[in-house]
Specification:
The complex is a heterodimer of chains A (322) and B (271).
Chain A: E1 8-9, E2 14-15, E3 19-21, E4 43-44, E5 62-65, E6 68-71, H1 80-93, E7 99-102, H2 109-117, E8 124-128, H3 145-158, E9 164-167, H4 175-184, E10 189-192, E11 196-199, E12 201-202, E13 207-208, E14 214-218, H5 223-236, E15 241-243, H6 250-258, E16 263-266, H7 268-272, H8 276-291, H9 295-300
Parallel strand pairs in A: 3-4, 3-16, 7-8, 8-9, 9-10, 10-15, 15-16
Antiparallel strand pairs in A: 1-2, 5-6, 6-14, 11-14, 12-13
Chain B: E1 12-25, E2 28-34, E3 47-52, E4 69-72, E5 75-76, E6 80-86, H1 90-96, E7 103-110, E8 123-128, E9 146-152, H2 161-165, E10 170-175, E11 183-184, H3 187-196, E12 203-207, H4 210-222, E13 227-230, E14 246-248, E15 254-256, E16 263-265, H5 266-269
Parallel strand pairs in B: 8-9, 8-12, 9-10, 10-11, 12-13
Antiparallel strand pairs in B: 1-2, 1-7, 2-6, 3-4, 3-7, 5-6, 13-16, 14-15
Helix pairs in contact in B: 3-4
The chains are: A alpha/beta (322), B alpha/beta (271).
The structure holds flavin-adenine dinucleotide, flavin mononucleotide and FE2/S2 (inorganic) cluster.
Residues 47, 65, 69-72, 84-86, 88-92, 130, 133, 232, 234-235, 262 of chain B line the site of flavin-adenine dinucleotide.
C-alpha cells in the first residue's frame, strides 16, 4: 500500500506532516539530532525568544505533579539577535520548517520582535501571549482580548508578510471570543493551549516545590481541557487551529485533529521521550494505513455542536403540572 | 560552559535486560544492565536516564512517574552497566525491586565528558549518601592512590566495607550519629583533615547533597586544591532542551547541569 499523504495545508504554509515540536521542549532545534532531526517534523518551534536575553527563574524550576509536569523556567532565552545569527540559519540549512516563538514583557516588544524576524528566513512567527510565568503586568497579554488584539495587529503589520500565529492561554473567560479577535486582528492561525497555571506543594517542607511558587502544568493531565478549548476555538474561526496539550501518542494527535485542529504540537512528550514526535508521525501513518482513510478524511470530520454550557440548563417546564 | 560546551557522547536509547541485582543496604541497590552492542564507554560523572519497563512488582501509592530518572554510571565493563540506586520515591523503589530478566529503558550516556577526571596522581573521592553513585567509575582512570570519604546519616543507610574497599585504596566512612562503621561526624570533617595532611595535593571529586558540595568548594578553595563536583538539579529532559536544570555560571551566564555538567569545576558551580 502507498505511504499515506500526511501533509496538511495551513493556508499560509503546507506542512509535510501535522506534527510540530512545541516551543520550550525542543531546545533551539538541533539538540536532539541523535533522536529527532528537525527536518523530519512538520515544523519546529524553538524556545521562545525576547528582545534581550533573559535569565529566567531560580531553581527548582520544574517538578512532576499528578502525571504531568509543572514548570516555571521563567522564559530563559538567548535573545532574538543571537537566535537569528546562531540558531535559525543551521535549522533552515537542514531544510527544517521553523516557527519563531517570541515573548515580551511589554506589548510593544512583540511588533519589535516581529520586525527583526521579517526577512530572516523564518517560516512563521508564533506570538506567546499566553505564558503564565510573565510577572510584569500580572496576567498574560492573552487574558485581555483587547490587548491581545492590538499585540497581534501590530505584530502582523511589523512582520511584513511573515505569517503570524497567536498562541493562546488555556484559561480565559471566553475562548471563542479570544479566538475570533485573533482572527480579526490578522493572525494567520491560532495555536493552543499553553501550559495551565498550577501549584505543587511539598508536604515535607510545608512550602512550594518550585522556587517561583506557581508554574505551568503540561502533559497528560491537561489533554481533555486542551481538546475542549481547541474544539471551541476552531468552531469560532475560519483560520487554522494548531492544537496541543498532553499529546503523547498518535491517537492523542488524531483526537485533536478531529476536535478541529489542522496540525498539532508535541511538548512534554519530547522531554519524556526524545523520539516522541517521530513516533507520533509514524503512528498517524500506521493508523491511516489500517483504516484506509486519508489525513484529509480525518481533517474534514467535525464533532457535533456542543451544548452551550457545562450543564444543559434548567429542565424544560412540563405541561400539565402546576 | 562559555567558550563551547564540553563534548557529548552520542547517546543511545534502548531497552536493556537486568542481569544482576545486589542489595548493598536496606535502601540501596546495585543494578547491573546488559550493555547494548557498541555502547559508548561512559566517562566518570556521566549519567543515564532509566525507567523500569513492565508492570511494577510493588504496590504503588500513586501513579508511575511521567519522566525517566537520571542516575550516574557506577560502573561499565564492556558487557554490563552498573547503577547504584538509592530508594527515595516511586521510580527508585521500582528499579530496586527488579529481578534479572526484567527490562529497563536507558537513555545515555548523558552529560559532558570531563577528560580532567582521568589522569595520574592521588584522587580523593567525597560521597554523601546516594553521592556514592558515580564513585565506581574511577578505578579504570589511572589515578592512584584513591581515597574515599563516605558519609551517611546513620548505620541503616551505610553500605558495607567490603563493597567500599572495591572502590578505593583507602576508605574512610562516616555516620552523622556514629552508629555505623568508621567515624562519627560529617564527611566534611574528614575532608578538612585530609586536605591538611602532608604530601602531594589530591584531585578532589565530590558528589552529594548541595550543602556538602558547597562546603567542599569552600574547603578546597581555602587550600587551593582542584575540585570537581557532580551537581544536582531537577532534570525534566536530561538532553539540554527544557532548561529545567539551568543554573547561574561563574562570571555570568548560565549552564545546563544535564549537558554542560553534571560535573563542574568546584568554583564554577558555586559562583
Ligand atoms: C545527574 C544526576 C545523577 C544522579 N545519580 C544518582 C545515583 O547514582 N543514584 C541515586 O540513587 N540517585 C541519583 N540521582 C537522583 C535520582 O535521580 C532521584 O533520586 C530519582 O529521580 C528519584 O525518583 P523517584 O521517582 O524515586 O522519586 P520521586 O518520587 O520523584 O521523589 C521522591 C523524593 O525524592 C526527592 N528527589 C527527587 N529527585 C531528586 C533529585 N534529583 N535530587 C534530590 N532529591 C530528589 C523528591 O523531592 C522527593 O522528596 C541523580 C540525579 C541526578 C540529577
Ligand atoms: C519546559 C517547558 C518550557 C516551555 N517554554 C515555552 C516557551 O518558551 N514558549 C511557549 O510559547 N510555550 C512554552 N511552553 C509550553 C509548551 O509549548 C506547550 O504549549 C505546553 O507545554 C502544552 O503542551 P504539552 O502538554 O504537549 O507540553 C513550555 C513548556 C514546557 C514544559
Ligand atoms: S534537564 Fe532539560 S535542559 Fe537539562
Amino acid at each position: 500500500m502507498a505511504e499515506p499523504d500526511l501533509s496538511t495545508d495551513l493556508g499560509f504554509l503546507t506542512l509535510k506532516n501535522p506534527v510540530i515540536a512545541a516551543s520550550g521542549t525542543f531546545g533551539y532545534g538541533l539538540e536532539l539530532l541523535p533522536f529527532c532531526p528537525p527536518e523530519a517534523l512538520g515544523a519546529v518551534i524553538p524556545k521562545g525568544v525576547s528582545l534581550a536575553p533573559w535569565a529566567g527563574n531560580p531553581g527548582p524550576r520544574a517538578c512532576e505533579a499528578s502525571g504531568g509536569l509543572i514548570n516555571a523556567i521563567g522564559l530563559e532565552n538567548m535573545g532574538i539577535e543571537r537566535f537569528l545569527t546562531e540558531a535559525l540559519p543551521p535549522l533552515k540549512a537542514r531544510g527544517a520548517t521553523v516557527g519563531v516563538n517570541v515573548l515580551g514583557s511589554e506589548p510593544e516588544d512583540y511588533p519589535r520582535l516581529a520586525e527583526r524576524i521579517a526577512g530572516s528566513g523564518a517560516d512563521f512567527i508564533e506570538l506567546n501571549i499566553s505564558c503564565p510565568n510573565l510577572k510584569k503586568g500580572g496576567l498574560s497579554f492573552g487574558q485581555d482580548p483587547n490587548v491581545a488584539g492590538s499585540v497581534i495587529r501590530e505584530s502582523v503589520a511589523a512582520a511584513k508578510g511573515i505569517p503570524v500565529v497567536a498562541k493562546l492561554p488555556p484559561l480565559v473567560s471566553d475562548m471563542a471570543n479570544l479566538a475570533s479577535i485573533s482572527e480579526k486582528s490578522g493572525a494567520s492561525a491560532i495555536s493552543l493551549v499553553n501550559s495551565v497555571p498550577a501549584l505543587a506543594v511539598d508536604l515535607a517542607t510545608k512550602g512550594p516545590k518550585l522556587a517561583n511558587v506557581t508554574g505551568g502544568l503540561s502533559g497528560p493531565p491537561i489533554k481533555p481541557l486542551a481538546l475542549r478549548q481547541v474544539y471551541v476555538a476552531s468552531g469560532a474561526v475560519s483560520i487554522p487551529v494548531i492544537g496541543m496539550g498532553g499529546i503523547f501518542t498518535a491517537e492523542d494527535a488524531l483526537e485533536f485533529l478531529l476536535a478541529g485542529a489542522s496540525a498539532v504540537q508535541v511538548g512534554t512528550a519530547t522531554l519524556a521521550d526524545p523520539r516522541a514526535p517521530l513516533r507520533i508521525i509514524q503512528g498517524i501513518g500506521d493508523y491511516l494505513r489500517k483504516t484506509g482513510e486519508s489525513l484529509r478524511d480525518i481533517l474534514s470530520q467535525r464533532l457535533p455542536k456542543a451544548n452551550s454550557g457545562l450543564c444543559s440548563g434548567p429542565p424544560p417546564a412540563t405541561k400539565g403540572t402546576k | 560552559m562559555k567558550g563551547g560546551a564540553p563534548p557529548l557522547g552520542q547517546p543511545l536509547m534502548a531497552g536493556l535486560e537486568v542481569i544482576r541485582v545486589q542489595a548493598l543496604a536496606p535502601a540501596t541497590t546495585l543494578l547491573w544492565l546488559k550493555a547494548p552492542e557498541g555502547f559508548p564507554k561512559p566517562f566518570p560523572g556521566q549519567f543515564a536516564k532509566l525507567r523500569a519497563l513492565g508492570p511494577p512488582q510493588i504496590p504503588l501509592k500513586g501513579g508511575r512517574a511521567l519522566l525517566d530518572k537520571p542516575f550516574s554510571f557506577h560502573g561499565a565493563d564492556g558487557d554490563s552497566l552498573a547503577f547504584l540506586i538509592r530508594e527515595v520515591g516511586t521510580e527508585t523503589a521500582i528499579l530496586a525491586t527488579l529481578s534479572p530478566g526484567a527490562k529497563v529503558r536507558l537513555t545515555g550516556p548523558l552529560g559532558a565528558v570531563r577528560p580532567e577526571l582521568s589522569g595520574k596522581g592521588p584522587l580523593l573521592l567525597v560521597a554523601g549518601g546516594a553521592g556514592l553513585g558515580p564513585m565506581g567509575m574511577f578505578r579504570a582512570q589511572g589515578f592512584g592512590p584513591i581515597s574515599l570519604l563516605y558519609g551517611e546519616r546513620d548505620a541503616s543507610f551505610q553500605v558495607g566495607q567490603g563493597f567500599l574497599r572495591g572502590l578505593a585504596d583507602r576508605v574512610l566512612p562516616f555516620t552523622d550519629d556514629g552508629s555505623g562503621h568508621g567515624e562519627k561526624g560529617l564527611v566534611t570533617q574528614g575532608l578538612e583533615r585530609e586536605l591538611k595532611a602532608d604530601g602531594p595535593k589530591p584531585l578532589v571529586f565530590c558528589c552529594g547533597p548541595p550543602g556538602l558540595l558547597r562546603e567542599a568548594a569552600r574547603l578546597c578553595r581555602e587550600r587551593d586544591v582542584r575540585l570537581y563536583v557532580s551537581a544536582e538539579a531537577f532534570m525534566a529532559c536530561g538532553l539540554g532542551i527544557c532548561l529545567s536544570c539551568s543554573i547561574p555560571a561563574k562570571g555570568g551566564g548560565r549552564v545546563r547541569v544535564c549537558v554542560d555538567g553534571p560535573v563542574f569545576p568546584g568554583d564554577t558551580a558555586f559562583p
